[in-house]
Amino acid sequence: MSPRWEPDPDIRRGNHVIYHLHVHLVFVTKYRRGVFDDEMLTRCEAIMRDVCQSFEAELREFNGEGDHVHLLVHYPPKVALSKLVNSLKGVSSRYLRAEYTGRINRIGTGSVLWSPSYFAGSCGGAPLSIVKEYIENQKRPV
């Protein structure tokens, strides 16, 4: 009997697509103010998990410090990354400012929690040099 093939849980399927998309996101607080403590980071993670689920994405990893958070998100190709980011930042800001009003206002960020910018880096799979080499080797013989 041949060994049973186990599908890779990171490779997902849709109606007309097979995908494996991960992004590393970093959000920084306004003016890099040290806003977060452990309790707020835990709540921020829960909020961001809910937002990801609403996009049919999965928050794989989350961590942060006083002035920024890191996320590793596995997302489907139908999701526009900018829309996911806007929702993650907007929803988390709204909930956290409502739930931790005193703390956030004392820090001096006003009615804004996040800096308008963010970092997004693609990750997972083979290094770019390997992918480039693979594509170069797909040339048709002349």
UniProtKB/TrEMBL annotation:
- Show where the Transposase IS200-like domain sits: 18-138
SUPFAM superfamilies in alphabetical order: Transposase IS200-like
Entries under InterPro entries matching the protein: Transposase_17, Transposase_17_sf
- Origin, by domain of life? Bacteria
Q: Which GO terms describe its molecular function?
A: DNA binding; transposase activity
Segments traversing the membrane: none
Name one matching Pfam family: Y1_Tnp
Q: Name one GO biological process term.
A: DNA transposition
For this protein, the record's NCBIfam families field holds: transpos_IS200 (NF033573)
UniProt protein name: IS200/IS605 family transposase
**UniProt source species:** Actinacidiphila oryziradicis
